[in-house]
Automatic annotation (TrEMBL):
Keywords: Cell outer membrane, Membrane, Signal. It is found in: Cell outer membrane. Belongs to the SusD family. GO terms for cellular component: cell outer membrane. This is Starch-binding associating with outer membrane.
Amino acid sequence: MKIYIKTLIFTLLVLGSLLFVQCTEVLDKTDLGNITEDLVWNDPVLATLNVNRLYQTANPGWSAGASALSDDAAGRNNTMYGRLTENSNSSYVGRYSNIRDANIILNGLDSGTIDEDDKKPLKGQALFFRALAYWRLVTTYGGVPLVLDNLGLNDELELPRSSTTETVAQIIADLDNAADLLPDFYANEDYGRITKGAAMAMKGRVLLHFASEHFDPDQSKGRWQAAYDALIAAKANLDANGKGLNSSYADLWFDDSNGNPEAIWTRLYNGDAQHSRDKQVRPFQPGIGGGRSDNATVSLLDSYPMLDGKKISDNTSAYSYDPVLLWKNRDPRFSATQTWNGDHYPLVVESPFQTNGFIWMFQNGITNTEADAEITLTGFYNRKAVDPTIPYNENSTTQWIEMRYAELLLNIAEAANEIGQGGEALTILYAIRDRAGIENLDGRFGLDVGLEGNTDEMREAILLERRIELAFEGNRSNDLRRRRLYGTLNGTERMGYYITKTNAFDSLTGGSILENRKFLETQTITGDIDLNEPDVYENYFTTEVYSIEENSDVPGQDGTDINYKENYYFFDIPESILNRNPNLEQTKGWPGGTFDPLK
């Protein structure tokens, strides 16, 4: 029975790999009905197919919902409202499936006869994805059972949870071993595979998180130096191999080649593997869905500085903030990430959903009942990494960049600040803002004088820069969790902009909404109407701030307050898993919990 189960798992892994990745040479020359373990682990092509499967099952990809677990975007969910019950998080089994697949690969490669030069990068990739799976587990639950080999029926299956510190130590060991085995660089045909620099950068990210309040609430462990050292080492490797900031913040997503210096760790898509993220965040089209993911909140929009880097509340800025035309004279990352009412943003979409390339967010402005009911909740749509040339009913192949060079720099800045090197952190913020296109009118890119000498203020500045630079990339929710900042949101509501047309709009032609809209568009194109003039815009549209939380659909209604619970920082092990293993302890903070995730 033990041999049968092990063989079955192995066969499923191989066949799954062949389904995910077509390899003509193997399919033409190999009798798939007679695949054995010896054949696979003695053949570098078949072994590579198994590693490739990890890129499909374990590698992160596009998500349009992560920002809903933060103050950056609309998102009516039980996590933010404090309504989660036991067994709400079910990622446990899936991560162990990734770990099992990685262990099969590692054991198989050790037993096979593949040349050592071919074997090393394959083992390195498997170790990386095993570390990633454990990292996702430990940030969700705290310490978990460490399974580092294939388990058979005669092995001890009812393993206890390792401590969080032990689990993180294993993750670091796997990443160190992976880095030793992985190449610095791949040829273009292998672009997207994990490199030595990616493994080193991931180690830095892990140690940065481990040093933060999530795992060290009272900041007594002194872990920041280790994080800083790991991040600096990663940067040295990546710099030596041509990595750096892409010259274009807006376009960096669309270069999926070694020529893109920003991409450290990616997930690639093609005609056979696509994603629907673009459809979820761009304006709604009936029958397609989308439009309400990653709608920016007032809080996020207010985070962007003016074009000279000054805060919108700073009256020393060279630019005046307009609370209605809030897109004017802002940090260029604003227009690279957001699109607003009356913005010219041509998409491949049918009339009446878009005409003349303009985007409208005012109530009942699309002239289609279903689409009007699904317009953005906040008065803004997300345009970051959206390919406007893709028809509304097609999926996208735009790569997901799990780690950008900009994140690496911001990670270094954060660790540097925590060990008293505020000057180094400031230099990094300068580089990030310079690439963004912020004007350097004061020699500080708008950052406060003396910031580098105040650890607390610099910490806030770095978190703010992360929020802007990495908006809608899943980092804000992680930062709130990592630094235990969710409690600062409790009792508040996320806000958006509610936009309505005025009588003056209705009088433009005396005709329908669509006719008036087209007339306004034409007049804007010719320059006869300038919607970037406050008086002109407000003549046609009214803008109100309102709650976008549950129970609030129009201005004046009270929505449900955010109520993120303390025990959500570490979730409960699912009951179905506990029932199968009496040696597993439940996480503290949950019914019957005795396991301390902070040890």
